[in-house]
């Protein structure tokens, strides 16, 4: 398929189709509903749904709900929302590992009857010790040679709820001396007296991930079970179970590299702690690497998908630079986002040769990258706001912005020259006095005179107050925890959120459009849902790398 991308996974699928092993791939995305999806999951979603689309197959959404203790409906709903947000559709193929509990149980009895599984009464501690080490073979459990009858009886009584949590487990009987720890009689079932969100109290016996996963794949007719590299060592067990059970199909497991991103933690355990301990405002805090957080931050799904495509499907783990993600966001928003003017830290400007109480309407281009975006009208008047950072009383040579005696362009307005300053009692500049050149309307002078600096500004009569939330990395270290004995939370960035009382042009206050905008010279922003009719709130999605060269 010429439309399909090039990577080792797609090469395998292409070869399998050519060899007649399958007509089209059937894949699955199997989240555990114990938290919100994050950027790492997006990589797996784009891969699984992406190859299904490209090769004319299908991708299932399967909730891996084998651990009732940590799973919640809120997460189940959020996961579906987020997969859809990325633009993918499971087309009716929504499944749960819990759908298969009865079949999985029957297959466990099948293993017992074949002498390939046994009930072990050892304590978790004893089991850990007898498993051995990488250099030392494990010790067989004293219960390993129980008869089929005794195993069946005990397993059925486990299901009936006769024993407390942790009293017994069911283990596969494989090889206690295997060089692969996963093959040393892995646990298939554990006792857990807990209410499951879907099966309620029907079960007090739950399958482990290793046992449930491959068998769920086989039941659903998955052809390519794509998972991250840490499951490479589990593959022999995956295959052993498929070989030893009466499964209706034989899926194969393939591993790809997990996404690791600088300044970012992609572990649900850590993300859960961040939420629980109030380091962030919730799962969708705009600083969170969750898909819900990215949406609230204003990151378009297209930008995230572009990023995933750019990093590719490597077979080895690596750390991806967060800057690459920002590149994809800017690249998309540069074309898509309308331009608006906002002043984050306002400084008053009075145009001395502009008549009091008079205004002039000026056209402002909505998006120089998109001619169809048209123009809007802004007003120029005697009192304006500019950015405090755009003025220096004693400026170095290359400061092309406002300083006494220097001419600058006010975007879409006029050339103005700073003629003086007004200071408060503390000696701080609180107002600039300027003159404008009436011949430079729109920002060009008829005599071809050049100015180096072009500033954004607001008409004081029209400016609307807004809260602007400036975000930085949630962690101050590119590899959080690496310099503090693994204490990730020691690396939390105390300056990850700065809130400023800003002013914005009226076009930004009207309506309640969540679409991203560019605040000229400042970055890309989007309206937060905390906005109220009188007070819009904006989140900074990402800054601009460069200010205008013009
Ligand atoms: P965590 O370790 O944070 O709990 P998980 O892998 O257990 O994450 P799941 O809900 O089981 O979370 O993940 C669903 C799918 O997403 C799995 O197939 C998993 O391999 C994949 N996935 C999770 N994190 C990443 C990541 N950082 N990069 C690529 N794929 C990932
Ligand atoms: Mg997990
Ligand atoms: Mg998992």
UniProtKB/TrEMBL annotation:
It holds the Pfam family tRNA-synt_1c_C. GO terms for cellular component: cytosol. Residues 26-317 form the Glutamyl/glutaminyl-tRNA synthetase class Ib catalytic domain. Keywords: Aminoacyl-tRNA synthetase, ATP-binding, Cytoplasm, Ligase, Nucleotide-binding, Protein biosynthesis. A motif ('HIGH' region) lies at residues 31-41. It catalyses: tRNA(Gln) + L-glutamine + ATP = L-glutaminyl-tRNA(Gln) + AMP + diphosphate. GO terms for biological process: glutaminyl-tRNA aminoacylation; glutamyl-tRNA aminoacylation. Its EC number is 6.1.1.18. Residues 454-528 form the tRNA synthetases class I (E and Q) anti-codon binding domain. A motif ('KMSKS' region) lies at residues 265-269. Residues 337-437 form the Glutamyl/glutaminyl-tRNA synthetase class Ib anti-codon binding domain. It is found in: Cytoplasm. L-glutamine binds at residues 64, 209. It comes from the Bacteria. Its main location: cytoplasm. ATP binds at residues 32-34, 38-44, 228, 258-259, 266-268. Residues 122-143 are annotated as: Disordered. One of its GO terms (molecular function) is ATP binding. Belongs to the class-I aminoacyl-tRNA synthetase family. Monomer. This is Glutamine--tRNA ligase.
